[in-house]
């Protein structure tokens, strides 16, 4: 049984090389300055608590900079909270920061193993997946070449194929991920759809209300790192629009 439990999680992110006296405007409302340092710290999340269990599908809604990606990174274990507690039970696939752990001087084959291990898989698992990943990414013999010799589309295909090679118990998704290679998009979307439907827990950050309504049963609204609403997706979207006077983009009609 997979689960995610966050208790009063706060995250402060440093901005190096910026003096607190140079921070102006609304930024001051979210800035903390450590008394023993000139480093400016932005409060990216403040006192966030949530509990998710098998079968839960949670959407994250908020303007750019509201804390959606920071929250995903905390759940994924990429960021540690400044305060609070995080308890995760289950294997995670993080479908964002897709180049995380990628060495551009190493070969594609070497990256399959090293990046898979960064994602929490064993070396043996990733060795077994070299063939399927290479085939899905359509890299052929280029899998033995350094990644720095790849086109941007090839890098995107490899990164996506590694991230989706093994079905996780917990899937973290940011709709901002995109495929530079248009010919690869259809296959990627089908695999991602299968990943979403089979995941034990789904957490997705999105501005598309149709995507949220299709895959999520509830959502939270974030504003400057704070949770301002928790409830059904439709109510969360309405709260976001009313409170922040934004419109989520309409889905294109067929």
From TrEMBL:
Short name of any one Pfam family annotated for the protein: ABC_tran
SUPFAM superfamilies: P-loop containing nucleoside triphosphate hydrolases
Gene3D superfamilies listed in its UniProt record: P-loop containing nucleotide triphosphate hydrolases (3.40.50.300)
InterPro entries per UniProt: AAA+_ATPase, ABC_transporter-like_ATP-bd, ABC_transpr_TagH-like, Bact_Polysacc_Export_ATP-bd, P-loop_NTPase
Domain ABC transporter: 26-249
GO-annotated cellular components: membrane
Record-linked CDD domains: ABC_KpsT_Wzt (cd03220)
Molecular function GO terms recorded: ABC-type transporter activity; ATP binding; ATP hydrolysis activity
Keyword tags: ATP-binding, Nucleotide-binding, Transport
Family, per entry: Belongs to the ABC transporter superfamily.
Protein name: Unannotated protein
Originating organism: freshwater metagenome
